[in-house]
Specification:
The protein has 354 residues and is an all-alpha fold. The chain has one domain. Helices cover 55% and strands 1% of the residues. Strands 1-2 form a two-stranded antiparallel sheet. α3 packs across α13 and α9 packs across α10. It is globular and about 65 Å long. 39% of the residues are buried.
């Protein structure tokens, strides 16, 4: 009887050892995805920091799945283009959505919230934040904090999305799913985080996209009923051609700034990093392709330094200035255009997270 118990005990220990070894192997094979932490309001966490309490391989997979599912679902939804009604009104809806989103990202999210290249009222600042948020690229504080960090630590390990330090696809889109880049580090955006309405939109960043999608669904339903297609068919067609396709196109147009403009193109100015000007890309992302210009003098609202450098977002900024909605639009000085000034450093609020 004693020998039988000892045999059972040895088998149990052996099985436990094998299970532990298997769990360790699986854990090592998984990406470093952990439970998201609350927005970091103070200090600057290291890029490699990992919250505790999420060491379970299964939990890691579930968290990663939760992060990538909405992003993947929107991409897959574009397949519905082949199954919904086509008309030139749908093409117009896609074009309008894309332009609306790119102005929000290039003009408001980047040049206003990240670099404060012009001034406006508090109420119109909220309008711009909601407008930019419709493009479904997180909240203004999250976006501005990461972009300011990019300028402060370009092409280093602390750069959130350097393709030269990491690789193209990680820089293009994979970095947004990594644990280190989930929080909105308010230390980098002290000038913005003092507005409770902006912190609200940053926390509930999914509300502007949902509102935009609902408006387009309602417009599509009315259009479908008017055309005799049925409200449901019209709503689905407008959603797929407008917000769905427009969002995917705007995503990758924006992502190209992180990846393409740090790998290919011309370097007019010595900026100490790998930023480059990609002229053809500026037609797509509303002037953001003049990235080497921008890294040389980031305090300017115009990224195109010459008349022939197409910069649609800047033209919209000038139009809003003429309307009196914004003012004090900062333009690149002639000496900077000629390369006769030292590389402009980030403003004080850009480096508070150091």
């Amino acid at each position: 009887m004693t020998q039988f118990v000892e045999q059972i005990g040895s088998v149990t220990v052996k099985r436990g050892t094998l299970a532990a070894e298997a769990l360790a192997s699986l854990s090592a094979a998984l990406p470093a995805i952990h439970a998201p932490s609350a927005p970091a309001r103070v200090g600057r966490a290291p890029m490699s920091a990992s919250p505790t309490g999420a060491n379970s391989p299964l939990l890691r997979r579930l968290i990663l799945l939760r992060r990538i599912t909405p992003f993947t679902a929107v991409h897959l939804a574009t397949v519905a283009l082949f199954f919904v009604h086509f008309s030139w009104e749908m093409v117009a809806a896609c074009a309008f959505t894309y332009c609306f989103f790119m102005v929000g990202m290039a003009g408001w999210m980047h040049r206003y919230f990240s670099h404060r290249t012009f001034n406006t009222t508090r109420w119109f600042q909220l309008v711009l934040a909601f407008w930019a948020g419709c493009a479904a690229q997180r909240g203004t504080l999250w976006w501005a904090a990461h972009h300011r960090r990019h300028h402060a630590f370009a092409e280093t390990e602390d750069d959130p999305h350097s393709p030269t330090v990491r690789n193209f696809w990680r820089s293009h889109l994979a970095w947004i799913f990594e644990d280190a880049h989930q929080p909105s580090n308010y230390k980098w955006v002290r000038d913005l985080s003092r507005y409770p309405e902006l912190t609200f939109l940053d926390r509930w960043y999914w509300t502007p996209p949902i509102a935009y999608w609902c408006v387009f669904a309602a417009i599509g339903a009315g259009w479908g009923a008017w055309k005799g297609l049925g409200a449901a068919d019209g709503a689905w067609a407008m959603l797929v051609w407008g917000p769905v396709l427009g969002t995917v196109l705007a995503w990758h147009a924006t992502f190209c700034i992180n990846s393409v403009t740090h790998l290919w193109g011309k370097r007019r100015y010595d900026t100490g990093d790998d930023s480059r000007n990609v002229g053809w890309l500026s037609w797509i992302n509303f002037g953001e392709g003049w990235h080497n210009n921008h890294h040389y003098y980031p305090h300017s609202a115009n990224l195109g330094f010459h008349w022939w450098q197409v910069d649609p977002a800047y033209y919209v900024i000038l139009a809003f200035e003429r309307l009196g909605l914004i003012w004090d639009v900062r333009k690149v000085p002639p000496k900077a255009v000629q390369g006769q000034v030292r590389r402009a450093r980030p403003r004080p609020e850009h480096v508070e997270g150091r």
